[in-house]
Specification:
Keywords: Isomerase
Shape: globular
Order of helices and strands: HEEHEEHEEEEEEHHEEH
Pfam families: PseudoU_synth_2
Protein name: Pseudouridine synthase
Family: Belongs to the pseudouridine synthase RluA family.
Organism: Pedobacter albus
Structural class: alpha+beta
């Protein structure tokens, strides 16, 4: 995999913060399973010595992620996350047609380590997400997701509880989208194996709003990466 230059990922930068558009398949922080592998934190530290990643995105999730350039900036944003003052907007493509009109999902999530999370009303930690349908296709829906809390896999598992699994999210029974699902008369060559349009789950961190050290709001929007944009383009063309 060819890694982009960190500078090319930057969407916003001031003396305190950098916001980058994280590509899919790059981890936010060091992973135990791949200790020496390139990740957003390592890339950021080569750019600014004291860089700290302020929150994480799942490895497959693309989009806006905030990096603090010094400890004071990191502390300030950590407090904002703790007090639920940071506004995050994600976009997801889900399998099926769903009419979410400010649907509020309030289901506690238990993280039992090794990347396993479950809904657990007794032991789980509070988790809240709002969902709105943005665009309807014949077989899919583009959904806006606004997490209030920041639990692991929160959007993914909350959508799954509504039987609206994110496309390609095998962990929560989401099926990948193939061109043959949406294009009439699509034929593969005899020995060819069809690849999904997106080789990951369709989730993108579209926008983030937080306060800078001067108390002013900083809002940054991250464009869709190529795979997500291609999926929507093909749905527009063949599944509208």
């Amino acid at each position: 995999m060819k890694y982009p230059a960190f500078k090319d990922l930057i969407l916003f930068e001031n003396d305190d913060y950098i916001v980058v558009n994280k590509p899919p398949f790059i981890a936010s922080l060091d992973e135990r399973s791949a200790p020496g592998k390139i990740n957003i934190l390592r890339m950021a530290k080569q750019y600014a010595d004291d860089a700290q990643v302020c929150h994480r995105l799942d490895k497959e999730t693309s989009g806006a992620i905030v990096i603090a350039k010094h400890p004071e900036a990191y502390r300030s944003l950590s407090m904002q996350f703790e007090r639920r003052k940071v506004n995050k907007i994600y976009h997801a493509v889900v399998d099926g047609q769903f009419q979410f009109d400010n649907l509020f999902v309030d289901l506690p999530i238990l993280n039992d380590g090794n990347k396993n999370v479950t809904i657990d009303r007794q032991e789980g930690k509070r988790a809240e997400t709002y969902f709105n349908s943005l665009k309807y296709y014949k077989h899919y829906t583009l959904v806006e997701c606004k997490p209030v809390t920041g639990r692991m896999h929160q959007i993914r598992i909350h959508l799954a509880t509504q039987r609206a699994a994110i496309c390609g999210d095998a962990m929560y029974r989401g099926k990948p989208v193939f061109l043959s699902n949406i294009k009439k008369g699509y034929r593969l060559a005899k020995d060819e194996e069809e690849q999904p349009i997106m080789k990951r789950f369709a989730l993108h961190a579209k926008q983030i709003t937080f306060k800078g050290l001067d108390g002013q709001d900083i809002t940054v929007e991250a464009a869709y990466p190529k795979d997500f944009a291609t999926l929507l383009k093909l749905l527009d063309k063949f599944d509208a």
